[in-house]
Amino acid sequence: MVDFKKTEYHLKSLCCEETFEDKDWVLDHDCDCGPSLIQAVYKEKQISIHNNHPGLYKFSDWLPICKTLPGAGSPFTYKSEALAKHLGLNNLYVTFSGYWPERGGDMKSGSFKECEAYCVTARGTEPEGKVLVVASAGNTARAFARVCSENKIPLLLTIPEDNIDALYFDHELDPCVKVVAAASGGDYYDAIHISNVACSLPEFYAEGGAKNVARRDGMATTVYSAVTTIGKIPSYYFQAVGSGTGAIAAWEAVERFKQDGRFGDNDMRLMVSQNEPFVPIKLAWKADSRQMLPQDDDEARHQVEEIGAKVLSNRKPPYGLTGGLYDALKATDGDVLTATNEEGDAAGELFEKLEGIDIEPASAIALATLIKEAPKMDPNALIMLNITGGGKRRFHKDHKIFFKKPDLVIPIGIENSEIVAHLQAIMKK
């Protein structure tokens, strides 16, 4: 454990702008102006890189944490040559989160969700004696399972059973991690419903998703890496989104860098992407609607079954609330792009051929949209491509793999009281 002094910061409501201290695992602020995110405001306005801290904790000046945990990796950023040349882009930078030993990529979960997990579990305001609850479509579950298992933090994960293969590790998990799956045919929304029921019980507490400042600022380390490596705020940011939390975090990170004053004062256009045919964020954005548009549950589940990037399957993203994805896109003159499974597959193959490592389907969707946009862009534009996950095949090659089976599978559509009974039974085991 590295000797670490708690980061100095306070919280602010993005709706009423009232400020307050971070205590008791606060996830929102009760005011009259409607749903809103809260934000961490750091004492240090100019970030310093603390290379004596492990992994992403080197960015601790802008992380809401009171400690560091062993095993943390970090995103890294490099200037692309082969891919950039192929696309005719002279200033394409790749920020990579995953397993890529030759370049120092040491995120064993293979995803930038690991940044969330190491930041959330280091926040230090969690209630004692309760079990953390995390809902996930896959990557977040794998990241939190690893971090909580290795640090003996009690955890209840809820995940769609159809995505259970995402729970792969290089060791058996500690029994402190329990996995509950929404039965086959369900999706991320069903996993979220189970987690919400769990959090209504006194023995559990919610991780909070996008509402948790530690989750967003952990994800912001991708932009911290890019800007401090490049020396400038990029003009464009490409990332695939399910909830859009990573894009919100990117927007917040750039606002901090603008206040820092050493990296420019431009906005970074958020170019976020979804996997056709599941494109609810695009539909709302193109309709210029602050609210998500109505969607039939069965049709949404069918669309989720069709997409290759299962982690992009959030039906209830933090889109319309103050400080959410709609505001981030508006503030940066951003856009929502889409790509098909076939386009994503081709993009993933291209990246591996030109850059030398396999990438996750969601990252391939982001690249697929960049490929389509590149001919329309200034070849000298400064571009950040957020490869949010990669190195899975390499990790499987280098390690003996263990898959975590669900401790419990809950049928879709049962009454909440039945879900409660199932959860209480599993926690007694």
Let me know the average pLDDT.
Answer: 95
Number of domains: 2
CATH topology of the largest domain: Rossmann fold
Kindly name the structural category: alpha/beta
**Structure annotation, total helices:** 14
Helix content: 25-40%
**Computed CA radius of gyration, to the nearest angstrom:** 20 Å
The CATH class of the largest domain turns out to be Alpha Beta
List segments where confidence is low: pLDDT < 50 over at least 5 consecutive residues: none
Number of β-strand runs: 18
How can the largest sheet be summarized? 6 strands, mixed
Shape assignment: globular
The main sheet orders its strands as 4-5-16-13-14-15
Distance between the termini: 31 Å
**CATH architectural designation of the largest domain:** 3-Layer(aba) Sandwich
Strand content: 15-25%
Q: What would you note in describing this structure?
A:
The protein is built from 14 helices and 18 strands. It is an alpha/beta fold and 429 residues long. Strand 8, helix 3 and strand 9 form a beta-alpha-beta unit. It folds into 2 domains: 216 residues, Rossmann fold, CATH 3.40.50; 116 residues, Rossmann fold, CATH 3.40.50.1100. The strands form 5 sheets. Strands 4-5-16-13-14-15 form a 6-stranded mixed sheet, sandwiched between helices. Strands 12-8-9-11-18 form a 5-stranded parallel sheet, sandwiched between helices.
